[in-house]
Amino acid sequence: MSIVLKAIRFHRETDLFTDLNFEFPTGALTVLTGDSGSGKSTLLSLIAGFAAMPYEGTILLDGHDDRNAAMQVKAQHVGMMFQNPDQQFRMRTLSGELSFALEN
Question: What CATH number does domain 3-103 carry, 3.40.30.10, 1.10.730.10, 3.40.50.300, 3.40.50.150?
Answer without folding.
Answer: 3.40.50.300
